[in-house]
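Working notes for the structural subgroup meeting. M.R. asked for a predicted model of this chain before we commit to crystallization trials. I am recording the input and output together here so anyone reviewing the notebook later can reproduce the run.

Input as submitted:
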Amino acid sequence: MYDLPKPYLSYSAMALWQKDKEAYRRRYYLDEKPIETYATIFGKKVHEQFEQDDSVLGSETRFEVEIDKGLRLLGYIDSFNEADLSIIDFKTSHNQKTWTPVTVAKNKQLVFYSLLVQTQYGKFNRVATLKWYETRIKPGGIEYKGRVYETGNRELELTGRVEVFTRKIYKWEIEKLRKEVCQVAKEISKDYQLFKETI
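Returned structure, recorded in token form:
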């Protein structure tokens, strides 16, 4: 039996638990809102515009599936095409080393999304896509006597550079992640029960 602070487990919640348990507790047990930065605010705005991309054949789709008794997963796939079950995940960053063929091959989020699709449809598309949109800090500031002084207000903009990465998803990856998700959910459940006993 699972006892989670939310009625479902998302990929971001699972990743946060694995990376920083204290941060997970603050976010999900104490309901502390994460600090929004100029990068996260910009990322949200850009994601809203991605659906206008002519090369995108699907739209953002919400998945909520049960992978074990009492364990539901929640995910929002940036672009999902029901006709061929294809998945596209959008990413933004100004560091070109963030997304490479190697980092995409190691990316578990695409496997997580494939797990959602397989659970709901009984099958999945073996090729998943990640589209990286490069960003940069907008040049700006106040000009005074021919010199530009930074104002400290950082804003991002897209550079126009887009890279498309594809990777194959294998059944063994999905099954391995399914077990990992269940294990994480059990760890959180045990920890959350202890937390509730102390308050």
